[in-house]
Amino acid sequence: MPARSEQLMKELNERVIIADGAMGTMLQDAAPSMDDFQGLEGCNEILNVTRPDIIEGIHDAYFDTGVDSIETNTFGANWSNLSDYEIDDRIEELAEAGAAIGRKSAEKHEAHDGRMRWVLGSMGPGTKLPSLGHTTYQHLKDTFALQALGLIRGGADAFMIETSQDLLQTKAAINGCKAAMLEAGTRLPLFVEVTVETTGTMLMGSEINAALTALEPLGIDMIGLNCATGPQEMSEHLRQLSQHSRIPVMVMPNAGLPVLTANGASYPLGPEELATAHEQFVKEFGLSMVGGCCGTTPEHLSAVVKRLGGGKPAARVPQPEPGVASLYQHVPLTQDNTYLAIGERTNANGSKAFREALLEGRIEDCVDIAKKQVRDGAHLLDVCIDYVGRDGVADIQEVVTRLAQASTLPLVIDSTEPAVIKAGMELIGGRPVVNSVNFEDGEGPGSRFDTIMPLVREHGAAVIALTIDEEGQARTHADKVRIASRLIDTLVD
What pLDDT, on the 0 to 100 scale, is given for residue 262? Predict the structure, then answer.
């Protein structure tokens, strides 16, 4: 990890890091011309190459208030947004240009007073959501990797994956960043902010604990909330993150809920009100980073700096709740009043009704079988479509696509085929379980264990591990303990 990024992570544990505010409203105030947009009205990222002076001026305005970090003008420098303008071949170029402008502004202010500033590479969600079938996880991952490469080369100190509305899209962005870091031979901190609507869930219906359960195992460095609402509506969700998150927590709210006026959206929350809300969040929830989103201005952040600059977040003693998640909800692995029940009726090898429905293409009946297991009290659904003579990848894609949206329960992908496991997990926004891993053909290149585990790590899945090794299934107490210990050491360490 570069020294600047290491210093950022160090200071996050020692004091409250203050980020900047809105970019879009500042750009509107700057009133760039249609020529500035090269005819691509609304494509703010094009200004990174046509009017870098405007972008640098906005960064300067925030740094002048005393904030520690700014976000790059690259929120929409992704395939989803830029393809709408037919310039998605410029993802890397516009991302790099945006990061370079932020780096220039940061270094200018560092030279003035010697205090380190940081550049956060903004990565928005785009408009194409994989959980709705708009695009694929793999395509998003590959194109987010291009954006991340540009941000690295432009000088970003960390990635800020923000305004996340679909957990599957968020996973693609995280893993795109990891692919870019591997290619560039570096490691930057990964920060993720999800957006919870006034309904109390993300756009796709995910509650905050489902988001934490799905994203924390991916190895991100900080999690939080931004956009959609003002601080008041975020309080309970931040409380949940504060109580359960092992990693630092942050928040960047709007300046209140927008009010539609004759001149467009207006944001009612004033600078002192935002500062008061952040002061309360830091004291009550131990937040490590605060900033602003839509409607917040340099005046808002100046008030926050005056109130919190140099302050320390309250100590947190998180109580993690190990579990798995569907797209919608978290399910703890330890149940209070019963055992963790896995519904097996969606297993083609164990359920004649499910197998026949699958063979005859009656997917609605497959969904009905799953829903009945929910009513019967299952906590997870075992999905096994392995059947001789069938195209397992096509079958798992069809079944999981339906169950991931139609069922509120987390899924167990039950297969002996790595290609089937991969296809299933690339459709799941929550945290699935893989059934199963073992040492039947050993470890090392070519083994099933070493083929499946990188997929498990990429998607942050849980695993069911079986006490089987090269000598077969363990039958004695000693062998079961020996293989179980080897599995735990290998999987965990």
Answer: 77
Residue 388 has pLDDT above 70, yes or no: no
Scored b (16 or more CB within 10 A) or e, 324-344 reads bbbbbbbbeeeeeeeeeebbb
Q: Tokens 């989103």 identify what position? A: 293
Q: What is the largest CA-CA distance in the chain?
A: 77
Closest of 80, 215, 60 to residue 140, by C-alpha:
80
Q: List Cβ neighbours of 336 (8 Å cut-off, separation of 6 or more).
A: none
Q: What is the mean pLDDT of residues 283-309?
A: 97
pTM of the model as a whole = 0.96
Residue 411 has pLDDT above 80, yes or no: yes
111-124 residue pLDDT tens: 999 999 999 999 99
Mean pLDDT, rounded, for 233-239? 97
- Give the chain's end-to-end CA distance (angstroms, integer): 21
Number of C-beta neighbours around residue 220 at 10 A: 19
CB proximity list for 15: less than 8 A, separation 6 or greater: 310, 311, 312, 313
Residue with tokens 């360490």: 493
Neighbours of 273 (CB within 10 A): 17
Residues 216-240 have a mean pLDDT of 96
Is residue 434 within 8 Å of residue 418, measured between CB atoms?
no
Q: Which of 218, 58, 77, 239 is nearest to 151 (CA)?
A: 77
The span from the CA of 215 to the CA of 233, in Å, is 22
190 — pLDDT class (breaks 50, 70, 90): very high
